[in-house]
Specification:
With 472 residues, this protein is α/β, with parallel strands linked by helices. The chain contains 13 helices and 19 strands.
Length: 472
C-alpha cells in the first residue's frame, strides 16, 4: 500500500472512531483513584465530595484502618484508610502533606476513605464493565464489582456497597417477641449432673424415670410435626429462605422452622415467593432485644444464666455484633456479674461501616433512666456516653467468623442468631471453633430459636428461653 493510501485509511479510521465516540451513550460515571500503583474506581453516585485533611481525632478500641473521626463542617464522620483495609503498602509521608479523602455515603451513613491519589471523573457505558477476576488488584474478589478499560487504562471498579454496607438480613427486619416455645431439649447431661448444676438433690426412683421419659418424648414431638407438613412445600420454603435471606435450615434451627412452616401453612400460605415473604416468615425468629438496647428483664435473665467465675479476666467472643448495642449491653451485664474481673469483649462483624462506627455510637438519653444508668456518664454538651471502663472493655473488629480467628481462649461465646446465617459447612466450622476456643468452664450462648448442631456434644443449662452450652 502506498504511503498516501495509508494516510487516507488512517484518517478514515480516526474519523470513524471519533464518530463512534460521539454516538457513545455515557450511562455510568466513576471517580478514579490509585492505591499503590494500581488504578481503582467507585460509582460516583456514592461520592459526596473530595477533601484533603490530616488531623483526625483518635478513637480507642477500633480497627487499625480506622484513622479516627473528622469534623466536616460540623458533621463528625469516621475516616477509614482504604490502603490499610486492603493491605496495600503506604508510601512514606513527607512533611505536612495532607491525605486525599473521598467522602462517601452508603445507606444514609457518611464516612471518608483515604487513598493515595485521586484522579478524575470518567464516563463510560455500563455495558463495557467486565466481570471481576482475581488477577485484578490485590483485593478480595467479593469486593470487586468489575473491571473496565477507559482512556487506555484498566480500572478495578470496587463494590462500595458490599465493602461498607451489611448484607445481614438481621439488621433490616422487624423483631417482634417470639411466640414459639421450643420443645423440651434432650440434655446430654445425666440427671445427677443436671441436678448438681441447679443446686438440687438428684432425682431418684419414679421422679428420675419421669425426667428421662420427658426427654425421650421430644424426638417424637418433632417427628409428629414433620408428618404434619407437606415435605415438598417445606423443602421449597427452605430453599427460598436461603436464596432470599441467606438463612440456612439445619439441625440448628429446624425445629423452629418446621413449627413456623406449620403456622404458615395453616394461614393459607404455601410458598415463600419473594424477599418480603421471607422477612415475614422469619419475623418471629429473632431473639429478644436482638439489634436493640436490652430491657431490664432480659439483662437480669442473662445475668442469672452466667456461671460463677473467679477469673481475674473474663474474655468474651461476640461475633455478629452489628451496630454495637448488643456488645455494650453485654459488657454492662458482665461488669455487674463479675465486678472484680477485667472484662474483654471481642466484638466482630462483617459489616465494615457498622463495626467502624460502633465505638462512636451515640447513646439515647432515655437509657440514663434505665438499668444502664450506672454505666453511663454525661458529657459537657449534655449527651450521654458509656463510661471509660465499658468503652475500654470492648474491642470492635472487622472479621468474618468463618475465617481463622486468632482469639485467646474465651470464657463466653455470645453469638445470638448468627449461626443460622451460615451454610451448614460453615456452621460446623464455626461451632467447632467455638468449642475449641472455649475454656473448660466456658459457655456458649446462641439465639433463642437455635440449638447447637446435633453432631456436637454440648451440655446445657437453661434459664427461661436462654440456654448456656458448655463442654460436657
Amino acid at each position: 500500500m502506498k504511503a498516501e493510501d495509508q494516510v487516507v485509511v488512517q484518517t478514515q479510521v480516526a474519523e470513524k472512531e471519533q464518530e463512534e465516540d460521539k454516538n457513545t451513550v455515557i450511562d455510568f460515571k466513576m471517580v478514579t483513584f490509585s492505591l499503590g500503583d494500581k488504578d481503582y474506581s467507585l460509582d460516583i453516585m456514592h461520592v459526596k465530595e473530595i477533601v484533603k485533611a490530616d488531623r483526625f481525632t483518635f478513637v480507642p478500641n477500633t480497627m487499625a484502618f480506622v484513622r479516627g473521626v473528622y469534623n466536616l463542617r460540623g458533621e463528625i464522620i469516621p475516616i477509614l484508610d482504604l490502603r490499610l483495609f486492603f493491605g496495600v503498602e503506604i508510601p512514606p509521608k513527607h512533611g505536612k502533606k495532607l491525605e486525599n479523602i473521598i467522602i462517601l455515603a452508603v445507606d444514609d451513613q457518611k464516612f471518608g476513605v483515604i487513598v493515595d491519589k485521586i484522579d478524575k471523573v470518567v464516563g463510560i457505558q455500563k455495558s463495557t464493565i467486565q466481570p471481576p477476576h482475581p488477577l485484578f488488584g490485590d483485593i478480595n474478589i467479593k469486593y470487586i464489582d468489575g473491571v473496565v478499560e477507559a482512556n487506555k487504562r484498566l480500572y478495578v471498579l470496587l463494590d462500595i456497597t458490599r465493602i461498607f454496607s451489611g448484607k445481614d438480613a438481621m439488621e433490616n427486619v422487624p423483631r417482634p417477641q417470639a411466640t414459639y416455645t421450643p420443645p423440651e431439649r434432650t440434655v446430654t447431661k445425666t440427671a445427677a449432673a443436671s441436678a448438681a448444676t441447679e443446686g438440687k438433690a438428684p432425682s431418684s426412683g419414679l421422679a428420675a424415670k419421669a425426667e428421662n421419659l420427658k426427654a425421650a418424648e421430644a424426638p417424637k414431638a418433632a417427628e409428629k410435626l414433620k408428618s404434619d407438613v407437606d415435605e415438598g412445600a417445606y423443602n421449597f420454603a427452605v430453599e427460598s429462605l436461603a436464596n432470599y435471606k441467606k438463612f440456612y435450615v439445619t439441625s440448628v434451627n429446624e425445629s423452629w422452622v418446621r413449627h413456623r412452616f406449620s403456622e404458615w401453612s395453616k394461614a393459607g400460605k404455601t410458598q415463600i415467593q419473594n424477599e418480603a415473604d421471607a422477612e415475614e416468615f422469619l419475623s418471629t425468629f429473632w431473639s429478644t432485644c436482638t439489634g436493640k438496647w436490652w430491657t431490664k428483664d432480659f439483662a437480669e435473665s442473662l445475668e442469672k444464666l452466667l456461671p460463677d467465675n473467679a477469673a481475674k479476666q473474663i474474655i468474651v467472643w461476640n461475633p455478629g455484633c452489628g451496630k454495637g448495642t448488643e456488645s455494650y449491653s453485654l459488657a454492662c451485664v458482665l461488669a455487674k456479674r463479675y465486678p472484680k474481673a477485667k472484662i474483654r469483649v471481642y466484638a466482630q462483624d462483617v459489616d465494615l461501616l457498622t463495626v467502624s462506627n460502633a465505638a462512636m455510637m451515640s447513646i439515647p438519653a432515655e437509657l440514663a433512666d434505665d438499668w444502664y444508668s450506672s454505666y453511663l456518664t454525661k458529657k459537657a454538651n449534655g449527651e450521654y456516653t458509656f463510661n471509660q471502663d465499658i468503652k475500654d472493655s470492648i474491642m470492635f473488629e472487622y472479621h468474618d467468623c468463618k475465617n481463622t480467628n486468632a482469639l485467646p481462649m474465651v470464657d463466653i461465646v455470645f453469638a445470638r442468631d448468627v449461626v443460622s446465617m451460615l451454610d451448614e459447612a460453615s456452621q460446623n466450622t464455626v461451632v467447632a471453633d467455638f468449642q475449641e476456643k472455649m475454656k473448660g468452664n466456658g459457655i456458649a450462648i446462641l439465639g433463642e430459636n437455635e440449638t447447637m448442631p446435633a453432631s456436637f456434644n454440648f451440655g446445657e443449662n437453661t434459664v427461661g428461653a436462654l440456654v448456656a452450652y458448655n463442654k460436657d
